[in-house]
Amino acid sequence: MNPSIAPLPPLTPQDEAQSIAFSLLFLCMLLLSLALKLWLSMRQIRHVARHRDQVPEPFAPSISLHAHQRAAAYTVARIRLSLLEAMAQAGGLVVLTMLGGLQGLIVLGALLPESWDGWRGPILVLSVLLVSSLIDVPFAWWRQFHLEERFGFNRMTRRLFVADLLRSTLVGLVLGLPLLIAVLAVMGAAGSLWWIWAWGLWMGFNLFVLWVFPGVVAPLFNRFEPLPEGPVRERVQGLLKRVGFAARGLFVMDGSRRSAHGNAYFTGFGKARRIVFFDTLLAQLDENEIEAVLAHELGHFKLRHLQRRLLTLSGGSLLGLALLGWLSEQAWFFAGLGTAPDRAVIDATALVLFMLVAPVFFFLLGPLSHYFSRRDEFAADAFAVQHADRAALIAALTKLYRDNAAPLSSDPLYSAAHDSHPPASERIARLSTG
Questions:
Q1: Cα end-to-end span (Å), the chain
Q2: What is the pLDDT of residues 29-82, one digit of tens each?
């Protein structure tokens, strides 16, 4: 037998007891996360239904009852679909772990020729991603061509959907496969502190993607044209000069090819920063409102919210990889999740298992993350009204809530658990009172 595919030593009685305990803990956490998601979603559905027949007072002059009821129906439809998707993903997770799906992929990989041993780890990870896509892609298709189309937001053709899927897969392979190979190599060769080196690779990868995304990746999916001369460009350039923000360019993206939703974003870093407006956003708002929205986004930069989030990501990644480094040495971690990997793929199996089950154990951190995100949104609003017109920001947000069919009233617990932005009524109320 090839020594690289030799089985690991048998479990000790203590390992077996720990694996059973970990299996039960995993299943309990999975059920708890699903139960909480269902309970909070039902609260939100009931809340939206109770308030669907009356437009909240701050929005009554600008949003019709019909638009409010359409937003309520859209919100409920999205929640119901997300619940179905969460249950399907949970079922797929159980199949991959407790029911032996991942172990089956490991066994199939062992049938490859001996000369392929070095590729079995990457192939295993890619196989799991492929299996997961069998759940994710149908839901994405249904969301785009049934839910979004039903409410008038979809502008994507089925041909474009498939083309996007193929392009994103190819980009993911070109960018991600070298990282995966490098991380697995480090796991196998750098000793017990391999996770420090892997963290360095991960952070370098993120910075590299930030650098190549604006000029290389994004144009593969959308067309970018310079923001044309006119009142909007003049207001934007004046705002950038007032707040001392340097950008390499102002661009308009053809977001209308895929959706009627409007948006704007910053991309890149350093001197390569770009400001990108969706063409749908420019069609929705006037120059005063666009200036106010951009002032809000600039607030995130000037108040160092993005730098703080990058530091948080960096620290969280380091802690996560350190935890993975410890778990990869525990026999009960593999056995408790239905796997018995051979030596050739033990590192890849540990990596896959961690990616699969970590969200189940860390889902309670979501509300904490959302709390800080909502706090930053309020701070960016406060920055915006110092550098642009308060009434224009309120008008812009109101139009975006209306045109994107956002709920105007949300259940407080649901919002705390799910929303990275403040509820619409709370945000407008704070802006209105100064």
A1: 74
A2: 999 999 999 999 999 999 999 999 999 988 989 999 999 999 999 999 999 999
Q: Which residue has the tokens 């797929």?
A: 92
CB distance 95 to 101 below 8 Å? yes
What tens digit of pLDDT does each residue of 257-301 get? Answer: 888 887 888 777 666 678 888 988 888 889 999 999 999 989 998
| Distance, CA of 372 to CA of 312 (rounded, Å) | 11
Helices (H) and strands (E) in the chain, counts: 17, 4
Closest C-alpha to 184, from 56, 332, 345:
345
Contact call for residues 58 and 429 (beta carbons, < 8 A): yes
d(CA 137, CA 144): 11
Q: What are phi and psi of 275, to 5 degrees?
A: -115, 125
State how far the Cα of 136 lies from the Cα of 158, in Å rounded to an integer. Answer: 16
CA dist 86 and 363 (Å) reads: 13
279-286: list long-range contacts, CB under 8 Å, 24+ apart: 279/252, 279/253, 279/254, 279/255, 280/255, 280/256, 281/255, 282/232, 282/252, 283/256, 284/399, 284/400, 284/403, 285/396, 285/399, 285/400
Give 12's DSSP letter.
Answer: P
Cα–chain center distance at 226: 28
